Amino acid sequence: MHEDQAGAIEQHFAVGDFRLDVLSQPDTGPFTRTHLVDYPSIAYLPTGQGEDPVRGCFGEPRSHRSFVPFGAAVLVPANLAVHVQSTGYAERRLLICRFDPDIFESLTGLGANASGDELAACIDVRDAAVLATLERLSIAVSRPSTAREMLVRGLGMVLLAELTRHFELVRERGFHRAGTLAPWQLKRIDQRLADESKPVPSVSELASLCGIGRRHLMRAFKATRGSTVMEHVERTLFARAARMLGETTIPVKSLAVSLGYERQGSFSAAFRRRFGETPRDYRARASAGR
Questions:
Q1: Do 61 and 205 belong to one domain?
Q2: CATH for 237
Q3: Whole-number pLDDT of residue 289
């Protein structure tokens, strides 16, 4: 059994370019530590060991608010200091997976110059496929077998592939605060509202596009944009109405129906509240200005 800075190494596997250590950590009181690793590493707290009370941040902390809770899986790029603090925890086992630095950075794009979104995603790797692979590794190392090293190596390759895919998505979609909508979800909403070939979407349809429930969408949209999702829908639709009144000859009644209004009078009243004039007056003024 080898000693490590944060515990004792119970098992060690070195297969190809992949290293895996099973770390036994004793009971501990409150502590503050700084880790700087030569190899990109992901630490995983296997299922059934409770929540991790550790908090951390990359780079020099500006205040106590710089420290955020670790997830079940935490990725630490090579040569990038991570500061951790904890109120302490009971005895537990931890998996530490290490990758070849050059191969890892060439595939994932993660290094010492990682962006803020990338580092936020490192503190709490939530990807289901990554977590499932780590859990399979924790089970594989606990079961003696003549094929165990082969299995560890294979799962190590799968883990690297899943991390590569995960961080490609982080760059594409961005990383968002809990309780808010991700950039890709906002993009789907705006793309749907821009599609003039379809009827006005309901909140339920927009929620489905985002992969969440109706109430979740309403809360998260307000937290993200500062307005309700229906206010955003109405603002977008009336901007479309104003554009169409100024650029086309579509009858006001037809325009009202296309925007989800059953009665032209209701549309005209809503338009006047927003723009201070009726649709007909707006069109006449826009035509005179051309």
A1: no
A2: 1.10.10.60
A3: 63
